[in-house]
Structures are given as structure tokens and as C-alpha cells.
Amino acid sequence: MPKDLLPVDQQYLQRIAPLLQERIKSLEESAYITEYFFKADEKFDTSTIIQKGMDRDSTLSALKAALDGLSATDDYRHQNLEEMLNATGEKLELSRRQFLGVLRTAATGRSVSPPLFEMLEVLGKDRTVSRMKNAVERFSAAS
């Protein structure tokens, strides 16, 4: 197993499968589409995290606000994450698309993924918070 992949158990795979069922069209694309579920941290080009109509400052504010909210909550059911993160985006006066686009890129390194809140629930608090911290650090360093 490559060094950068995390150990996986059957229960984790069973939680991922429903999220990917409609996304994966061929076995060839499955590795690319699923790799962020199996890595400790996700790398991304910092320029890709800035959403249309946003700048560096608003993007960094979005990342920090998301990190604060995700760190503070212990209820990682997708319904709770959706409610909390939508409220956070509204407080920042960002559109849902902008705010969730920043989070999706920080969590997966991609602009497209399975449903965001369900994916964050499966990733769990430790991985999600770690990825948001990494995104804040990388984005701050690139400024």
C-alpha cells in the first residue's frame, strides 16, 4: 500500500460506496474519484480554491470560519453539518455556491465531489478539521 494512503476498514468502505455509486462510470476513473477518502491530507493548487466573485481575503475568511465551526461541533451527521455550514456562509454574506466551493476544494482538492455534507460526515471530524487546517495554512502561506 502506498505510504500516503490511510488504513481502511470494511465499515468505512460501506459508508463511501453509496456516495460514489452514481459518480463512478468506469473502473478506470474510480481511483481518481475516490482517492481523497483514503489520503491523510489533500493537496490542491491554492489558486483553485478561490471561487468566482471572491478574492484571497474572502476565501481565507471562509476557510477560517469553516474551520472554527467544524472544530466546535461534535455532531458530524450531515444534516447538522449542512445547517451549521449554511449559516456560516450566510453570516459571511457568501453565496452557497461560493462558500461550499471553497470547502469542497479544501476537503477534496477538487471542484466536484459526492454531496459535500455526506462526504464530510464520512470523512469524520478528525480528517475534516485536519484538511481545513491544512488549507488555511497553505492558503495563508501562498498569500
Describe this structure as you would to a colleague.
- The chain has one domain: Arc Repressor Mutant, subunit A (Orthogonal Bundle), CATH 1.10.10.
- Helices cover 63% and strands 0% of the residues.
- It contains 6 helices and no strands.
- The protein has helices at residues 10-20, 27-34, 56-72, 78-91, 96-108, 116-142.
Write the layout of secondary structure elements.
Layout (H helix, E strand, L loop, with lengths): L9 H11 L6 H8 L21 H17 L5 H14 L4 H13 L7 H27 L1
Brief characterization of the structure:
This protein has helices spanning 10-20, 27-34, 56-72, 78-91, 96-108, 116-142. It is mainly α.
For this entry, give a set of tags.
143 residues, mainly alpha, 6 helices
From the coordinates shown, what is the CATH architecture?
A: Orthogonal Bundle
Quickly give the structural class: mainly alpha
Helix content: 55-70%
In the CATH hierarchy, the third-tier topology is known as Arc Repressor Mutant, subunit A
Beta-strand content: under 5%
**Structural Rg:** 15 Å
Strand count, sense and barrel status of the largest sheet are: none
